[in-house]
Design a protein that fits this description.
The protein has 458 residues and is α/β, with parallel strands linked by helices. 28% of the residues lie in helices and 36% in strands. A hairpin with a 2-residue loop joins strand 2 and strand 3. The longest helix has 27 residues, at 3-29.
Length: 458
């Protein structure tokens, strides 16, 4: 059997696996299989079948091999089950939420018994996407897949094919929502491999303010895959803070696609923290659709053992007089691997663009590696654009200075590493979440140090 034949057979097997699962979904839908949404699902499945999973021959996936996902037979979760999740599990994961509107999802499905949605102000909707698709399908259809198109992204296509539930947040023009919205996407401890397709759709009208936190967490060290898609629309003058915290299980796969569309004079700030998962790929894109808008993308990945964390970002300056700021950092220990690819496009008519991008990686062991590629594509002439990437280890002089003040070597290294990470964590506005992350980072750095020591032990 030739290599080409083997690849063709594998692609056919993958296609048949998800097609057979899709037939199960159709049988469960009954009359809903004739809705426009299901037409969209069918089209997305057909597109996934045509695309197949990407390979390392694809430049966008050159350093990230998705063969483990393709080989495994992940069963989509087609209906809500509590699946052993307890109130104690929710409280443990939700630490740091403070006063917030809480929506909990188990394996991608809304769990009302764990959620807390108080009476909302006029013009504000916070509900499950599954419910909104039934009560107001036309409103949802105006935005769903508008940014997260599936025609050239196999993961988004597959997620859309099995789109059943998620979060829907909608603020009418000038509506006010003082409380943040906390979205908890939890993977249960079921033993057979499964995949969930959580969808987050956020629409902020003119002159609104909104804070949203997405949390992804696993309850066990089981094998599962989260295939998440988020779309955020900021109308003129809207101000949105979006935080994402990912603490998936140690054998989990996480693929996230997050898209922002910014109208004129809007402001979007996104802080993405990755602490968990065996395999992680996050794609984040932002498109300027109006003048005098501002977008900030911050990210922090902390990995150890054999974790693989890949962050791809793309900022499209399609309109003039806009500003973007980007800071992505990674701390890699053990034999972990990081990937960063950050693209900034400045279109021909996007004059007066101000774009800054920085990527910094701290390698704590000789076995940890990073592939980083910042990119600028500028087609306008009146712009201010900078980008840069640095990779290094802890400064020996700084370690020596702390040791000379009585600090042990391990503690000195942890202090300097924590300071490196705090540059991103400190940018999160929510104080309770920042405090939780401080605690989690200290524990995570200790875990990485132990893993690195184990790696060096014969």
């Amino acid at each position: 059997m030739t290599a080409h034949t083997a690849m063709t057979d594998e692609a056919a097997r993958v296609k048949e696996w998800y097609t057979s699962r899709f037939r199960q979904l159709e049988r469960a839908l009954n009359g809903e299989s004739r809705t426009p949404l299901h037409v969209l699902r069918r089209d997305a499945l057909a597109r996934f079948s045509a695309l197949g999973f990407p390979t390392t021959e694809n430049e966008e996936w050159r350093f990230t091999n998705v063969a483990p996902i393709a080989r495994a037979e992940f069963a989509p979760v087609l209906r809500y089950e509590r699946d052993g999740v307890s109130d104690a599990d929710i409280e443990r994961i939700a630490r740091g939420t403070g006063d917030a509107i809480r929506m909990v999802f188990v394996n991608g499905h809304f769990a009302p018994e764990f959620s807390s949605i108080p009476p909302l102000p006029k013009g504000v909707r916070v509900e499950s996407l599954g419910a909104a698709l039934k009560t107001d399908p036309d409103l949802v259809a105006r935005f769903l897949t508008r940014q997260a198109t599936y025609h050239d992204n196999a993961f988004t296509a597959l997620s859309t094919a099995f789109l059943l539930d998620g979060a829907f947040i909608h603020l009418e023009d000038h509506a006010a929502l003082e409380l943040p919205v906390d979205l908890l996407y939890i993977a249960s401890g079921r033993t057979s491999p499964f995949v969930s397709a959580p969808r987050t759709l956020v629409v902020a009208g003119r002159d609104t303010r909104l804070a949203v936190v997405e949390r992804y967490a696993g309850l066990a060290q089981n094998m599962y895959w989260t295939n998440a898609v988020t779309e955020v629309f900021a109308a003129e003058g809207a101000v949105i803070e979006h935080d994402s915290l990912q603490t998936e299980g140690g054998h989990a796969y996480h693929v996230g696609n997050t898209h922002f569309l910014l109208a004129g004079k809007s402001t979007v700030t996104s802080n993405a923290i990755v602490l968990g998962g065996a395999f992680v790929r996050n794609n984040v894109s932002a498109v300027f659709d109006g003048e005098h808008a501002e977008c900030t993308l911050n990210g922090l990945a902390v990995a150890t053992g054999t974790q693989h964390v890949d962050n791809h970002t793309a900022i499209d300056h399609a309109k003039p007089n806009c500003a973007s700021h980007e800071l992505y950092k990674a701390i890699l220990d053990g034999a972990s691997k990081g990937v960063f690819n950050g693209k900034i496009f400045v279109r021909k008519d996007a004059q007066k663009t101000d774009a800054k991008q920085t990527n910094k990686t701290l390698l704590l062991s000789d076995e940890a590696t990073i592939d980083t590629k910042p990119q600028l594509e500028i087609f306008a002439d009146d712009v201010k654009c900078t980008h840069g990437a640095t990779v290094g280890q802890l400064d020996g002089e700084q370690v020596f200075y702390l040791r000379s003040r009585g600090v042990g070597e391990a503690d000195a290294r942890d202090l300097l590493t924590f300071a490196f990470a705090s540059d991103v964590v400190s940018r999160i506005h929510a104080g309770e979440l920042r405090a939780q992350l401080d605690t989690m980072l200290h524990a995570r750095l200790l875990q990485g140090r132990v893993a690195a020591e184990d790696l060096c032990t014969p």
